[in-house]
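Annotated sample (chain length 364).
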Amino acid sequence: MRTLTDDPYAYSLALGCGNCAAFEWCGGLSVRDSIWDCLDHCCGKPGDCTNVCVKNPVQYVDQKREILGFDLSNIPRLVGNYRPLGHDIVPLIYHRTGRERPVPGSAFALRLHDVVDFARGELRYPTRDHLCAAFKIDPSADIILSGVDHDERIEPWWTLQDRLSQVLQQLRDLGTQLVTAPNFSLLLDKPRTDDLHAMKRIAIVWSEFEQHGIACALHVNARTLKDFERWADFVRQRNEIGIISYEFITGAGKKARRQFHIDGLRKIAQSADRPLDIIVRGDPDVIAHLQRDFRSVIYIDTMAYMKTIKRQRATRVSNSKLDWITTKTKVPSEVDDMLEHNLGEQSLFLRGRFYGQDAASVQR
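Output written by the structure step:
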């Protein structure tokens, strides 16, 4: 990863990048590895490859045509649907885990692929009541759908095609407060045209959600300075974008690279010249950094629910940290009690550490 990580301050531009037809959008690569250009990462097997690569010209033309080129400027302008939510910590619920009663709360996050059945091209749950019953969550809570996931779970979104309008209509009728656009991957060891294709798809999907009346956070996936510059220009030019999203789980979550991504996100906020919110998953340590430039930082927490699944109960240690103690449960009500306890303790801990709220003031 280190040899393929772009760093124009440490390494010179690859010699073959300057004459590339995609340089306008890519900006070239400056990496430690000895490459002529990104096509050194071509697999050389066009018959078996699904990457967006010029060495597979027939497929490449079709892939580029389906997104109307790499330029972001031809994404339709629209009226944005996002309104500030007023939440800070939003727990992600994976499933009901043998519980018997809805967990109380003002907001919950669910994974997009858990709600949409891609094979059938429709939602898994016909109404909001069915959805809340399936995940055992408070029916009055705000619902955020997170598009951050493994590739195999979000790539099917792009295959919905003629079923897309139906799915988007159903999602709007479900009354979700916010969706984060799928984080189509940008990978270090593929041709950069694959990255540019993924970025354009993210922008297109964001636009499709918004056109159907669904507030959507633009997921600004980036791996180079040029990527962040393009997203900053896109966000600055479009007042309809009120919130963006990012994940600090995989590449951006690496300590050696985390600050690069934080700086890129802050530049987007600074260049927007208007209040901008952000919703993040992964390393909570980024919250304090992002609060300097974003109006609101919404953090989707997965820890409390995962610890409950593993039957671990949160215990405060000097009000400065949480320990997770393995506990046996005998009946579903004990799991319900543990989940409510863990969600409460984790939220108090995160608010105290990253949002400057002590436990006493939160409880009042």
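Annotation: The two ends are 47 Å apart (CA to CA).
Annotation: Residues 107 and 142 are 4 Å apart (CA to CA).
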